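Help wanted!
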Amino acid sequence: MSLEEQGVPTVAVHTDVFARLVNAVTRANGMPTSRQAYVPQPVVDRSPEQLRAYIHGTDPVSSRPFMQEVIEGLSNPLDEADLEGVTFERNTPRLLESETEDGLRQLFEANGWTDHLPVILPTEERVARMLEGTSHAPDEVVGKLRPTFFREYWEFTVEKVAVNAVMAGARPEYLPVILALASTGQTSRSSSTNSFAMISLINGPIRKEIGMGDGIGVLGPYNHANATIGRAYNLLSINLQGGSEPGDTYMGSLGNWYNYSSTFAEAEERSPWTPFHVQHGYDPGESTASVFFGGWYTQAGYGPRETWQENFRHAFAGSEQYLPPIIVMDPICARGFVELGYDTKEKFIGWCADNARLTAREYWDNQWIQTLMRPQAVAGVEPYASRLKADPDELISIFEPDQIKIVVAGGETQGAWKMIGGRYTPNWTVSVDDWR
Amino acid sequence: MTNKLTVHDPRGFPPKVTGKRLAPRLTGLEGKVVFLVDCLFDNSDVFMDQMQSWFAQHLPTVRIRTIRPRESWYDDPDMRATIGEEGDAAILGVGL
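Answered by r_m:
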C-alpha cells in the first residue's frame, strides 16, 4: 500500500487462507479496493513445477485465472471507489446498553471478547472497585497494542485495563501487575501463524504482597494471582488490540494453550542464583514484570544426573532454532548445577550456548530461519553470516548467550526443568511499582 | 421480570481510518518495467522465478526486474524509492 501511495500501481499476491485478513488490513488502511491476487496455500515446500501450476491456474478467491487478476490489477482503469478509498471512525462506547446477565454473556461470547470460558461481567461497581488497586487516573492512556506488525495500533486507558482485569477474575491488588504487562506494548495474542503466546514473569516484593505462586505447580492452575493475572493479560490483549479472531486477527495454525494464562513468579528466596530482574538492571526491592514471546515448544528434563549434558544437548537440538528458550528450573535442579560449579546463571548459560548446536544443514532447513535470518546472513550480519558459510555437516551454535534465559521456580518435589520457547528483548522488563 | 445490568465495553480505542486513493493504472504493460518484489518468505524466490518465466513466455515485451527488501516483515524505503524511480508497476509476493 505504501507503493500505491507513492504512485506505483501494485498487485499483492497472497495465499488464499489470508483473504479475510487482507480485506481487514486494506480496509483499516483506507484502501479497501487495493488489488490482490491469490494462490492456494501453501507456497512453502512446493516445487517449482507446483508453483508454476499455481501461476497458470485459477485464483481460488475470485475463481478467475490468476494471471488475469495480476495483469488487470495493474492495468484496468480505476473507478470512484479506488480514487476515494474509505474514511470512517470506529467508536467503542464506555458502557454497553443495559441487558440481562444471560444476554450480556451471549453478547461477549458472540463478539469474541472472551477466551470462551465464563467471565466476570464488568459492571460499573466492579470496575470502580478494581480501579482502587492503582493511584492512576482511569482515563490515563497506558499504551497501544496490535496483533502483529502490519495491523493498526489500538489505544487504551487504565479503565479499559481494569475492565479486562475484572473479566478475568483478578483482584484489585493485582491491577498494578496487569497494568505493567499492558504497558509493555506487547500483545499476548499475536496473530502469527506460529501460534505464539506471551509468557510473563513477575519479580520483586509484589509477588509476596499479592500471594503469587512460585512453588508446587508454579506453571499450572494452582494460584489465584498467577492464573487471573495471566488470564487478564490475554483478555486485554484480545480486546485492546482489536480482537483475536481466527481468520482475521488470529492466524495461528495450531493454537497454543499458553494463551489461556501463563504468568508465574520467580522463587527468588529459594534460588541460588541472582533473580531475573536484578540480572536486567533492577534493584532486588523493585517489582517488575517481564514478558517472553513464544510458548511454541516446551521440553522437559531432570536435574544434573550423569547424562545431563546429553539431555540438554538433545533438548536444544529439538528446540526451534529461530526461537531462543527460557529455562524454568526447580530450585533442587539449580542447586545441583551450583554444586557442579555453575555458581551463576551466566556460567550455566555459557555452557548452554556452547552446546546448543545443530548441523548447518538442519539449521538452515527451517522456514523461519530462511525468512528471518537468511536475509541478515546475506547482508553480512553476524552470527548469521558465519552460520551461512559453514559446511552443511558442521555443527554450528544456534543461540547466543544473551538469548538464553533462566528462571528458578518450582515446588522442590522434583529436580526438574522445562525449556520453553520464549524470546526476550531487554526493554521487555517493566516496573510494576510505577503502576501502584 | 429479569434484572438488567450495565457493564463496560471491554474494547480499546481504534484509530480513525483515512481513505487513500490507488495509484493511476497503466494503459498497458507493453514495454513497461514491472518489479517483482520477493518479500523473502520461504520459497517466495522460487515463486517469483516462475512469475518471471510466465512473463517471458506470455508477455515478453514487459521488462521484469526482481527486487528484495533488506529484511522480511519490515518496510524498506530504499527499495520503494528504487521501484518508484525505475519502475512502472510492482507485483509483491508471496505473503502479506
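OP: Thanks! One thing I noticed: Chain B is about 25% helix and 20% strand.
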